[in-house]
Design a protein that fits this description.
With 450 residues, the protein is an alpha+beta fold. It has helices at residues 45-58, 80-89, 122-134, 199-213, 221-225, 230-240, 249-252, 289-302, 325-335, 364-377, 433-446; strands spanning 26-28, 31-36, 42-44, 62-65, 71-76, 105-106, 147-150, 162-171, 174-183, 192-195, 266-269, 275-281, 286-287, 306-309, 314-321, 348-350, 384-387, 401-407, 410-415, 425-432. Helices cover 28% and strands 23% of the residues. The strands form four sheets. Strands 1-2-5-4-13 form a five-stranded antiparallel β-sheet. A five-stranded antiparallel β-sheet has the order 3-14-15-12-11. β9 and β10 (192-195) form a beta hairpin.
């Protein structure tokens, strides 16, 4: 057993949160929730089987794919220690129990195999995760404090905001690591850059600077930036590094090229010859144990023995021989995953909703199925997010189309617009799912720009 349960941290955290972890199960209407943080989204086939067994043995059999590439078990019964012990025995717990909350580093699910990557992000990611786990002071970070590392992959989630984001760029033939605070590569240019070799040093310095400057009530980088000018933070950061910060126009005016839409669905080529990634969407983010077991078997039979969970609530097999890609697609579909971006349900996400969340105003999962069925009948597939309340738990970024519940079965309809705050432009109030389906179908026929 990796760690005794008595090793679980008992002290009150400096920046407490209601977020679940592996060692902290939080209550919901349908039972407890346990969040399993996966390094780079990777889970071995044997670990996936352990999750499936735990979901059946200690909970109601509901496994969720999160929008940060992790897994959750819902509906956990009274035997919390039994569930935790089973997951820890499978190697899914933190190496240091005090670090369970802060292992929040997002990578591309194709890190190390992406044909567009400027470098293999995995060694640097391992260094960062090691520091998050073993640097005692970093355990003071909020469970919501998050980092992302983008090495220029074509398959990368660029829209999720992070407290610290790192994004590779090339300047005069050199590969650098640009970075930003409280934003994301999709909309922000880097504040500065360092050589890739200094990436770990940069992360450690930024985290220590945040903890030096932020009060306990300032849980996120954006809270600190409300009081401390970014220029002041950069000057302080520069004094802590052994390399100079690069801040010329070639860095600070750079915009990251957008990722290819739906690249996580179906077949994605690898930089390695004759190998490919094969991905399938988890319908509405919900995995059954049988689905997870089926995917794990495919990973062993056709891939490299591991699954990668993605920030799009999907999973991927990696290192699949191109001659066996068709078998992988068939197998994922047979397991219940969605492997065609033209499937309406593959484009719809929904939070837990009123069926399992006290804050939810509508049964978003059931309504999402109804909407997807309507859109599918009209051969329409559009990226839609159904949120049971304004917290937007299912989407860390603003979706192209958002349905915000106002009561059971009724929603306000928003279309994302760069100049509109929040969910975007309000296009309809207090609509039924039938009315939403009719509007989206008609809009899809008249407007192809969304």
């Amino acid at each position: 057993m990796s760690e005794p349960l008595s090793a679980r941290p008992s002290a009150t955290p400096l920046r407490p949160s209601a977020c679940p972890g592996l060692l902290r199960i939080v209550p919901a209407l349908d039972g407890g929730i346990c969040r399993i943080k996966l390094p780079g989204g990777v889970i071995t086939a044997s670990q996936a089987l352990a999750v499936a067994d735990a979901a059946e043995g200690f909970a109601g059999g509901v496994i969720e794919a999160t929008n940060r590439g992790n897994l959750q078990i819902r509906g956990i019964g009274a035997d919390h220690d039994g569930l935790i012990a089973a997951l820890v025995d499978a190697g899914l717990g933190p190496k240091n129990p005090a670090s369970d909350d802060v292992r929040n580093l997002m990578l591309s699910p194709a890190a190390g195999v992406d044909p567009q990557q400027l470098f293999d992000a995995r060694p640097l990611a391992a260094q960062i995760l090691h520091s998050l786990e073993n640097h005692p002071r970093f355990h003071e970070l909020s469970p919501k404090f998050a980092l992302s590392l983008d090495a220029g992959e074509g398959l990368a989630m660029l829209e999720h905001p992070h407290d610290l984001w790192l994004s590779a760029l090339q300047v005069e033939g050199d590969t650098l690591l640009g970075f930003g605070l409280a934003g994301c590569p999709a909309r922000d240019s880097p504040l500065a850059a360092v050589p890739v070799a200094a990436g770990h040093e940069l992360v450690v310095a930024v985290l220590e600077l945040f903890l030096d400057r932020a009060r306990p009530d300032q849980a996120r980088m954006r809270h600190l930036l409300q009081e401390v000018p970014v220029e002041q933070l950069l000057a302080d950061l520069a004094s802590r590094l052994s390399v100079p910060l690069m801040t010329g126009p070639a860095v600070t005016t750079r915009k990251r090229a957008p990722d290819k839409a739906n690249a996580h669905i179906g077949v994605y080529p690898q930089v390695q010859a004759n190998l490919a990634c094969v991905g399938g969407v988890v319908p509405l983010g919900r995995l059954t144990p049988s689905m997870l077991r089926g995917a794990a078997r495919l990973a062993e039979e056709l891939g490299d023995g591991a699954l990668v969970m993605t920030p799009w609530q999907s999973l991927m097999l990696r290192n699949v021989p191109t001659a066996r890609v068709a078998l992988a697609l068939e197998g994922l579909a047979r397991a219940g995953l969605l492997v065609d971006a033209g499937q309406a349900l593959a484009q719809v996400i929904a939070c837990t909703g009123s069926a399992a969340c006290a804050k939810g105003l509508a049964d978003t999962k059931a309504d999402a199925l109804q909407l997807a069925d309507c859109l599918q009948r009209h051969s329409v597939a559009r990226a839609v997010h159904l949120s049971g309340c304004e917290r937007s738990c299912a989407a860390a970024h603003t979706a192209p189309i958002t349905l915000l519940a106002v009561s059971a079965g009724r929603y306000d309809l928003y279309f994302h617009h760069a100049d509109a705050p929040g969910f975007g432009q309000l296009r309809g109030r207090d609509l039924t799912i039938e009315a939403v389906g009719a509007l989206l179908t008609a809009d899809s026929r008249s407007n192809t720009d969304d």
